[in-house]
């Protein structure tokens, strides 16, 4: 007999939806306003092939783990959180570039919520910095879409917050 997919809410069989989430800039406790999309958390550990004398089989070992960039997207507002963070990588001041290494990297927290808005899974992403910033997406006078701002975050790894456990749903 297969196991139940949820240990506490045993009558629940459907997985969590991907439209209820929060993003925090740590150590802050307020979610970043208006984030509409978060690119996936992905890591890769490639295999390294090697041969040993006397062994007819090609052996495989674990290579270095890499973490893919994370995309954050939101509607354009007067809030400047994304722009200020992107400016730490490079900002032009009267045509001269400047960089702020002290403020370049930060920790973020991504929280997935259930349909009722309760946090169910959370990840902390370490040492993020903005490698790409789109201040204003393509504009089209014939369109009806929301104006979007986008950042691409390089990071040095992420981990799941195991202290956040499944809560009884009402």
Largest sheet: 7 strands, antiparallel
**Rg from Cα:** 21 Å
Our measurement of the CA-to-CA distance between the termini, rounded to an integer number of angstroms, reads 27 Å
Low-confidence segments, given as residue ranges, are none
Which class best fits the helix and strand makeup?
Answer: mainly beta
Shape: globular
**Tally the helices: what do you get?**
2
Quaternary arrangement of the chains shown? single chain
* Percentage of residues assigned to helices: under 10%
The strand count comes to: 13
SSE order, one letter for each helix or strand? EEEEEEEHEEHEEEE
- What percentage of amino acids are in beta strands? 35-45%
Mean pLDDT: 89
Q: What's the short version?
A:
By secondary structure, the chain is mainly β. The chain is built from two helices and 13 strands.
Topology:
Blueprint: E1 21-25, E2 35-38, E3 43-44, E4 47-50, E5 59-62, E6 66-67, E7 70-75, H1 81-89, E8 91-93, E9 96-98, H2 101-104, E10 106-113, E11 119-134, E12 148-154, E13 158-160
Antiparallel strand pairs: 1-10, 2-7, 3-6, 4-5, 7-12, 8-9, 10-11, 11-12, 11-13
